[in-house]
Amino acid sequence: MSFLHFAPKSCICAGSLKIDDVQSGRPTIEESDCGDRFKLIIPYAGQSITWEVVFNSVLLHFPPDFCFDDDTFLSDPEVGIIEENVPSLANWDSQDSKSLLYVICELLALYRKHQVSLLSDYSRLQFEYSSLVYQTPVCEDDVEVLIGSRGTNIKSRLMGGAVNFLIRLKIDFSDLPPVPTGEDSGECAAVLVVTFHPPEGSRIIPQLFLSPRVEKALGGSSSFHLPPFPSGSCLMDYVPVVAEQLRDRVSAMCVTYEKKKEYLGAFCYRMGKAMLEFDAISFSRASFLLECRDFYFLLHVSLPMHFPKERPVFVLQSVYHSSYGKPFKSRYDDYPYSPRWDPSEMVERACTCITSYVEVFQRNSIQSCPI
What we know:
The chain has helices spanning about 80-85, 85-90, 100-115, 125-135, 155-160, 210-215, 235-270, 345-365, and strands at about 20-25, 35-45, 45-55, 65-70, 145, 165-170, 190-195, 205-210, 275-280, 285-290, 295-300, 315-325, 325-330. It is an alpha+beta fold. It is elongated and about 90 Å long.
């Protein structure tokens, strides 16, 4: 599954913060395009929360009011709580264009603490959270909790909706292979969303979300298979397993990238000036214009995602003949190969076999032409 873009820094979850339902609080008889009240749709813990922001367009120096979709959050806040946890609201600066952003970030941090505090009335979920943040490398800032049904009664909340745990996985993506320009958007990240469904969290569904660059570098959304959540297991056991498997996958892709680079480098060195095209980003393909006994042809080399475990694919293309309006091509994969060979040895053996196959390819290409 794919990431979109990251929300404010206080939020771990993937997605873009959206503004919706912009309205004016001024009397309807006044003609004004003032939008002093609107809703913020904020990605949080794999879901979305909606907060309404209400300004006073007449008294612009006044801080905004907020209406939350969670009745238990700041329902009757003490002044000290706001001053301590949301100082940007207590000391509102109407001249600072980022004042609202600061307030939202501080409120999100406070909301995260509030959601965690609600787990105290539910022993299973409290254990899951406490054991995760105190007995694994995962820290409190890496976890978001969201109770699905956000009513006022804790028992009805826990029975009325699922509970999401969103965990940021600490993975080093710095050595990931580059991706084509335009696909390298956003920072590299991976988050795990584990949903506990009622009753008693008996049904548990994990989901992994990767940022666009990570997903592309790993070969697409289906390239990494998330292990199932074992029966009787808990987050402190499951999360490290997922993180380690993802690290292994990243490491394997880095090795594959270097092997591809070495292989195509050896091929280009062997073919000299015959190269036509060369993938200098992912090192997954190259094309050459070759000649053998006065017969010219194109050789297309493609390296599979799991190279060198999987052998390269060679396609020979005639520059003279066509079949049904398309250039005559032939795939060649009957050649000796071992992933344990050095890239230069792979190339030498492949070139020897391709040279011996050219006569067969030439004959087939001639016979493909309609009389």
